Structures are given as C-alpha cells and as structure tokens.
Amino acid sequence: MAELAQLVSQMEAGQLPLEASVAAYARGSELVKYCAAQLDKVESQVKVLEGDMLKPFSADEASQ
Known about the structure:
By secondary structure, the protein is an alpha+beta fold. The protein is built from 3 helices and 2 strands. It has one domain (about 1-60). A two-stranded antiparallel ribbon has the order 1-2. The longest helix has 29 residues, at about 20-45. The mean pLDDT is about 85.
C-alpha cells in the first residue's frame, strides 16, 4: 500500500517524465490487482455466508 500511495503522489505532482509516468501507472495497476486479490482471499478466509447469517470461517469447512 505504501508503494502504491507513493506512486500516486508522484503522478499527481505531475513532475515525472512521460516514460516514468507510464511505468508508474503500470506498476500501480499491478499493485491494485495484487491488493484486490489479497483482500478477496482474506475476506473468504474470515467469513462464509450461511443462510442470512455471517459466521467466522474455519479451515475445517474449507476442506469439505
């Protein structure tokens, strides 16, 4: 997240040359995808939907 925030700040400042801006954008896109995947993974580990109730996720349920 820190790297992504730094890239955004640099790009918003408008001081990067075009080539560096394109590289920063590409890296930022990779980081956003990684963060989204990690968030999805963690959310599925923490909760499972059972009927209308949310309950803590257990590793035993995942292996079934």
